[in-house]
TrEMBL record:
<dbReference type="GO" id="GO:0005737">
    <property type="term" value="C:cytoplasm"/>
</dbReference>
<comment type="function">
    <text>One of the proteins required for the normal export of preproteins out of the cell cytoplasm. It is a molecular chaperone that binds to a subset of precursor proteins, maintaining them in a translocation-competent state. It also specifically binds to its receptor SecA.</text>
</comment>
<keyword id="KW-0143">Chaperone</keyword>
<dbReference type="GO" id="GO:0051082">
    <property type="term" value="F:unfolded protein binding"/>
</dbReference>
<dbReference type="Pfam" id="PF02556">
    <property type="entry name" value="SecB"/>
</dbReference>
<comment type="subunit">
    <text>Homotetramer, a dimer of dimers. One homotetramer interacts with 1 SecA dimer.</text>
</comment>
<protein>
    <recommendedName>
        <fullName>Protein-export protein SecB</fullName>
    </recommendedName>
</protein>
<feature type="region of interest" description="Disordered">
    <location>
        <begin position="1"/>
        <end position="21"/>
    </location>
</feature>
<keyword id="KW-0963">Cytoplasm</keyword>
<dbReference type="GO" id="GO:0006457">
    <property type="term" value="P:protein folding"/>
</dbReference>
<dbReference type="InterPro" id="IPR003708">
    <property type="entry name" value="SecB"/>
</dbReference>
<keyword id="KW-0653">Protein transport</keyword>
<keyword id="KW-0811">Translocation</keyword>
<dbReference type="InterPro" id="IPR035958">
    <property type="entry name" value="SecB-like_sf"/>
</dbReference>
<keyword id="KW-0813">Transport</keyword>
<feature type="compositionally biased region" description="Low complexity">
    <location>
        <begin position="1"/>
        <end position="17"/>
    </location>
</feature>
<comment type="similarity">
    <text>Belongs to the SecB family.</text>
</comment>
Amino acid sequence: MAEDNNQGNGANGQAADQQDKPQVQFALQRIYIKDLSFEAPNSPSVFQQPFKPKVGLDLDTTHQKVGEDLYEVVVKVTAQVTHSEEGTTSFLAEVEQAGMFRIGGLEGAQLDHTLGAFCPNVLFPYARECVDSLVNRGGFPPLMLAPVNFEAIYAQRKQREAQQQGEQATQ
């Protein structure tokens, strides 16, 4: 009987520990386009020659706190396609795909990781579809962007920041 009571107290002790820890809350509130731009500066002449694209892609993520446990995360995708031989711009497509996330119970590095890697992973498929649709509506063949590993991008950014801090400390 004594063993049963000890086990019961252990389970109650664990439950008390779990109650002391803040509950992690994560909820996607809204996904929306914050900014959208498409330019085809050399049309219609660009359509009169064979399409030989050279794609340049730029990605950026930002986030900001907008309320109590409420954050806006933005993934900015810029695709510039030039004619591979002539170097003239065929088109430039820019999309800022944003999302509002309610995040509670996370602080410091965990919150930074969630905002810098996890949330962009949620938003990027929407940005990919938007770029593809925009390019297609501009009269060009679809531009299917490859998936992006925001975990790796986040890790690289953190590594660069640590290097910069190390360099500043030695100066």
